[in-house]
Amino acid sequence: MVEITESWIDSQAPNSAAIKNGQGLVKKGRFLQLHHSEDHAVLFGTCAGSGSSDYQPSADFAVPEKPVMRCTCPSRQFPCKHVLGLLYAYAGGASFSSAEVPEDLAAKREKAEKREERKLKESAEGAAPKPKKVNKSALKKKINAQLEGLDVLEKLIHSLIRNGLGTLDKKEQKLIQEHVKQMGNYYLSGAQSELRRLALVLSDKDQEKAYTYAVEQLAVMNAIIKKGRQYLASKLEDPDMALDHESTIEEWLGHAWQLTELQSFGLVSEQAELIQLSFLSYADDARLEHVDIGYWIQKDSGEIHRTIQYRPYKAAKLMREEDSFFEKARIPVLYRYPGDMNRRVRFEEMASIPVTGEDLVWIHEYAACSYAEAVKKVKNQLKNPLADSQPVILLHVSRISRNDEGQYAITDEAGQSIALGDVFLQSTVPMLRYLPEEKLSGVSMLVMFEHSLTTGRLLAQPLTIITNNEIIRLLY
Fold first, then answer.
1. Tens-digit pLDDT profile for residues 18-66
2. Is residue 50 part of a domain?
3. Same structural domain for residues 333 and 374?
4. Quick check: is 130 in a domain?
5. 337 and 384 share a domain?
6. Is 217 helix (H, G, I), strand (E, B) or coil?
7. Is the omega angle on the peptide bond into residue 79 within 30 degrees of 0, that is, cis?
8. Sequence-ordered strand ranges (E) for 17-65
9. How far apart are CA 295 and CA 392, in angstroms?
């Protein structure tokens, strides 16, 4: 069975409220019975409900990396607070007695075990998951609709530029909103979000700032139109109508990658070990979703990956909310999405183990020592309008200094400096003043880069500092 720690339980919770409520059940003594199976693979018990009925939560660790959690309560959250409370009670050292697994739970376990045996047998025989069959006739119609939608979008963009953003009135703003809805009908969800983002930028009362960022947004949309049209036209000519698994154009056009698709293109790694170095969560009004992003470093390659979860506003309460993770994740199968720096990754199973001093050593070894090479890599990415505009890199820091005006900068061994500044929604630079001097030199720093449109400078925001004995997160 996996080591059940509070940190691991937190990672399983759907949101912070569920964590609080689960811990509250333990503190209030709401659990009437706490049991484990003879082999300790199943935890189960009885929890007093808010009404006359009691609930039976359980956690089955027959497959340690993929526990099955169940409860008889009507909650639509998964796992519910009762299962979380059961786990918190176990992690907190509560007394669990050995007991026979209830019949209904045993029957469900038996079915799950048979499914798992079938999967293992198929895996042993080398049977890879079959990608979903493509209906080429329907796909061709979709591509033609997307091409038509790109034409419509291009006409709107040209009209806005021709008339000038300074003349934008309520009538044209309404026209933009109408086109936002149309993009959904043309299967262009990526273009739909970016057009909505343009509308949000143009609604900023600070007109000078709005026009500056609107120009950047127009460049992004122009790239979607040109690259999207070129790609879709070539896809129509391809007899197989294959997906592009090397660039991000599919996602920009609205394709949601399936794990079987990623596996069929060989975009997988086995037995990967990752440590999360930073985590951030924000509301994206253009996508109408909450976005949870974790930045992880992979042990065998030193690559900085991203895990990304989108939670639509309408369904956010029912979806698991990602959170900071402070242990090392051992992952049987790691799926990689197409992309350049900070590729998006995904995994369905993991085992958590404590981060050790040895882990800090290899993290330091992967930190880039030459700022000139790091900046060159960042600039090459920023040249592509469809690339991530806020790439993240791990840098070695010879020292962190501050000038008379309060501006912080980091310097490498060669004496080259990079100015620090807040580029994300949440500020971290002011926190540096609270760190002792020994944590400001000879360290590694995870930074997020951004090209400032107002100053024309490349800034780096500190996310995390790694010393010889600890990981200091400035942004969770």
1. 899 999 999 999 999 999 988 888 999 999 987 778 999 999 887 777 7
2. yes
3. no
4. no
5. no
6. helix
7. yes
8. 31-36, 42-48, 54-55, 58-60
9. 8
Q: Does pTM top 0.85 for this prediction?
A: no
In whole angstroms, give the CA distance from residue 59 to residue 71. 9
State the Cα–Cα distance between residues 280 and 182, nearest whole angstrom.
Answer: 32
Long-range contacts of 262-267 (CB under 8 A, 24+ apart): 262/335, 262/336, 262/337, 263/128, 263/129, 263/335, 264/128, 264/131, 267/335, 267/336, 267/337, 267/338
Amino acid making up residue 58: S
Running along the chain, 476 residues long, what does each successive block of 10 average in pLDDT?
A: 80 86 93 91 90 88 82 88 94 91 83 68 56 80 95 93 81 90 93 93 79 88 95 92 92 91 93 96 93 96 95 82 89 94 92 92 95 94 92 95 86 93 88 89 95 84 95 90
Q: How far apart are CA 94 and CA 74, in angstroms?
A: 26
- Do 218 and 172 share a domain, yes or no? yes
Determine the structural domain holding residue 101 and report its residue range.
6-124
The answer to whether 233 and 147 have CB atoms below 8 angstroms apart is yes
Residue 347 CB coordination number (10 Å): 19
